[in-house]
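Marked as duplicate of an earlier ticket. Keeping the data here for the record.
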Amino acid sequence: MRPAVSKLCVLVFSWLALHNSLTTGSPFLLWQPPFFRNQPRVDLGYSSYVGVRRGGVNVFLGMRYAAPPTGNLRWRAPVEPETDSKTHSAAEVRPLPYLPNPTRR
């Protein structure tokens, strides 16, 4: 195999390993990606989050706090979300669900 092709393969596999580690929280990598270094962390029991420091304050945005209110959970008290072993980024607000604009009469 040519050196350029082998370097490209190493680069692609390294990126895939990093992507897998960030999205699944798997301990595949022995080092932490730069974003996760020295960042505030919180473990809520059902999931872990990595926030950001802004102006000397730890900020956690877009964290799940309850299961989606669908089916039998509609119009009921919030229920703890499903447990997962992933570490999620809480550095920005997640997209809001679609809310139709009802027409006024």
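See parent ticket for discussion. The chain has one helix and five strands.
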